[in-house]
């Protein structure tokens, strides 16, 4: 959150770009585009900026159309847009705001106005990003939280059943975690949880989803992964965690695995089978991987 915010300046006039970049360069990372299409190309390539300063009157694609396309894209739609334009009628401003812009600055460019408006919108964007992060992530470990996992898991299950690929679930529980807290204190327990989460994220592929499900339990949802592949990955994770030694302590995990059954099985059904397999792993002596019975 302390990194410089990125502002993308879009204008077909090199002079206007130079002026706006000069106003903002000391406080922000400034990127520029000299056309509407170039702006969309930059946004598509990523990473997304924190704010878009957008001219309206451009030859190939006007700012209104750029705004419409940005707001219609689920990934780009949250980028705040400020129109910076010589079109100064109330109708123009009202139309721009109706399309989803957050502000409207008229030319000639006044540095103090640009700085103040940009600062306000960047601050609001950063606050919104932080709230979104806190809503979907576990505060301690920064992996996804239970709420987000349940939201996304249902979508993944529906897609898996529709497309016919594999989906597997790892349910991990830190062995004897209560003893860690009782003998070494909750701060050490927190260090163990953070180290555990980081290790899980190291093994995380783009299509995988890692979440803290509650207490010392974590879930890894493995997209495009059958149970045999899930077992191999779980064994690697189990050994890596045993070797981890967070806070100088030897920590082990028990892991239950379930692969989504074909048909109409829900995420909760798969989770119950993984939980049953986890219980078996605990009963069999912990620090082991058990696969749910199909």
TrEMBL record:
InterPro entries tied to this protein: CheY-like_superfamily (IPR011006), Diguanylate_Cyclase (IPR050469), GGDEF_dom (IPR000160), Nucleotide_cyclase (IPR029787), Rev_trsase/Diguanyl_cyclase (IPR043128), Sig_transdc_resp-reg_receiver (IPR001789)
Modified residues (4-aspartylphosphate): 55
GO MF entry, a single one: diguanylate cyclase activity
CDD domains cross-referenced by the UniProt entry: GGDEF (cd01949)
Annotated SMART domains: GGDEF (SM00267), REC (SM00448)
The entry's keywords: Phosphoprotein
Gene3D superfamilies linked to this entry: 3.30.70.270, 3.40.50.2300
Reactions accelerated catalytically: 2 GTP = 3',3'-c-di-GMP + 2 diphosphate
Domain of life the protein comes from: Bacteria
Domain Response regulatory: 6-122
Domain GGDEF: 165-294
Known EC number: 2.7.7.65
Example of a GO biological process term: phosphorelay signal transduction system
Top-level class of the enzyme under EC nomenclature: transferase
A Pfam match: Response_reg
Gene Ontology CC, one term: plasma membrane
Cofactor(s) for this UniProt protein: Mg(2+)
Keyword Ion transport tagged: no
Protein name: diguanylate cyclase
Organism from which the protein derives: Oceanospirillum multiglobuliferum
């Amino acid at each position: 959150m302390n990194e410089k915010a990125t502002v993308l300046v879009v204008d077909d006039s090199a002079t206007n770009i130079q002026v706006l970049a000069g106003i903002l360069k000391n406080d922000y990372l400034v990127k520029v585009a000299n056309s509407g299409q170039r702006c969309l190309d930059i946004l598509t390539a990523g990473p997304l900026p924190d704010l878009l300063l957008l001219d309206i009157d451009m030859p190939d694609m006007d700012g209104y159309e750029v705004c419409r396309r940005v707001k219609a894209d689920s990934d780009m739609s949250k980028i705040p847009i400020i129109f910076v334009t010589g079109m100064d009628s109330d109708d123009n401003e009202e139309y721009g705001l109706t399309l989803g812009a957050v502000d409207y600055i008229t030319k000639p460019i006044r540095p103090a106005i640009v700085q103040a408006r940009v600062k306000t919108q960047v601050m609001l964007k950063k606050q919104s990003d932080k709230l979104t992060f806190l809503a979907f992530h576990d505060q301690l470990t920064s992996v996804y939280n239970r709420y987000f996992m349940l939201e996304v898991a249902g979508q993944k299950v529906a897609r898996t059943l529709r497309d016919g690929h594999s989906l597997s679930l790892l349910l991990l529980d830190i062995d004897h975690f209560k003893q860690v807290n009782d003998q070494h204190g909750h701060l050490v327990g927190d260090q163990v949880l953070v180290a555990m989460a980081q290790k899980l994220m190291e093994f995380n592929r783009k299509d995988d989803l890692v979440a803290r499900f509650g207490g010392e339990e974590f879930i890894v949802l493995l997209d495009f992964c059958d149970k045999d592949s899930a077992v191999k990955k779980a064994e690697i994770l189990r050994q890596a965690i045993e070797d981890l030694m967070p806070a100088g302590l030897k920590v082990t995990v028990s892991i239950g695995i379930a692969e989504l059954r074909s048909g109409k099985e829900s995420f909760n059904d798969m989770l119950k089978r993984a939980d049953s397999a986890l219980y078996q792993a605990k009963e069999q002596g912990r620090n082991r991987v058990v696969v749910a019975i199909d």
